[in-house]
Design brief:
By secondary structure, the protein is an all-alpha fold. It has 10 helices and 2 strands; from the N terminus they run βααααααααααβ. Strands 1-2 form a two-stranded antiparallel ribbon.
């Protein structure tokens, strides 16, 4: 009896993939609508209301995706592991909060998504952000955007190449590079979620619903450089350092737990030798 490849905690079926594609498409619109709508559109006329609308919509869609993935095979063992990892991530998030982007939970999301697969990674990222918001009192209109962004972040780690063959330093380098880039990507998309709330009269980097797309893009880049570049850099560096130092031990522990749980390990029986 031999195993074909690394087990996955959740098998993504057609329904789960369709739900993920739907929520991701709506999420892209929810994050990027300031650059997708012309200044004369009705959505731009309600610039202060649009983030609230998308936040409410994303709550429902993330719940639908979680339900669809659960129906695809999120069994008791996977639920137990989800609870442990989400609780660990939620506990790690407040460490260093408010200090130069020191957020150790990001490296755990990368490694968990890598070992347990994209479906589990999406649910883990979303649930972890929700749990940490309850723990820290960070509940607000930004929370659905954080849940979706972290779900993408952890899911992307599960989609990296070579999950069954790449090991050792090469894998750590891949995960560190992904974590570095994804940490900046997370900060950038979360800037998009909050940027439209700024009043155009308050700053020259605020979103102006009456300005052209190119003008708002320049404003947004200036906003990122002025407000979050240092924070995102700190998050990226911490993710890389923790991945390279603690990554080997955490990967081994996660893979050992996955093998023992034997979620859906595909098995092939070989014919007996004569």
């Amino acid at each position: 009896m031999t195993t074909d490849h690394q087990a996955r905690a959740v098998h993504l079926g057609p329904r789960s993939i369709a739900a993920l594609a739907l929520v991701s498409a709506v999420g892209v619109v929810g994050f990027g609508w300031p650059f997708l709508t012309p200044p004369t559109s009705r959505l731009s006329a309600h610039a202060q209301d649009a983030p609230w609308l998308f936040a409410g919509l994303l709550v429902l869609l993330v719940a639908v995706v979680a339900a669809a993935i659960s129906e695809s095979g999120l069994g008791p063992k996977a639920v137990a592991m989800l609870g442990v990892l989400a609780a660990t991530g939620a506990a790690l998030r407040p460490i260093g909060a408010g200090t130069a982007g020191i957020e150790p939970m990001f490296f755990l999301m990368v490694l968990s998504g890598r070992v347990l697969g994209p479906g589990f990674g999406f649910v883990l990222g979303s649930v972890t952000m929700f749990a940490s918001a309850l723990l820290t009192g960070g509940v607000g209109p930004w929370l659905p955007f954080q849940m979706l962004a972290m779900g993408w972040f952890a899911m992307g780690a599960g989609l990296l190449p070579g999950p069954d063959r790449l090991r050792g330093r090469a894998e750590l380098a891949l995960l560190a590079a992904y974590g570095f880039l994804a940490a900046f990507a997370y900060g950038t998309v979360m800037n998009l979620a909050g940027w439209p709330f700024m009043s155009a009269l308050a700053s020259h980097v605020a979103f102006d619903p009456h300005a052209a797309v190119a003008t708002n893009l320049a404003r947004f880049l200036a906003y990122c450089l002025a407000t979050s570049l240092g924070w995102d850099l700190g998050r990226a560096v911490v993710t890389v350092v923790l991945t390279l130092t603690l990554g080997p031990a955490v990967l081994r522990a996660l893979r050992r737990a996955t093998r023992r749980a034997a979620f859906e390990t595909p098995v092939r029986f070989e014919a007996p030798r004569t």
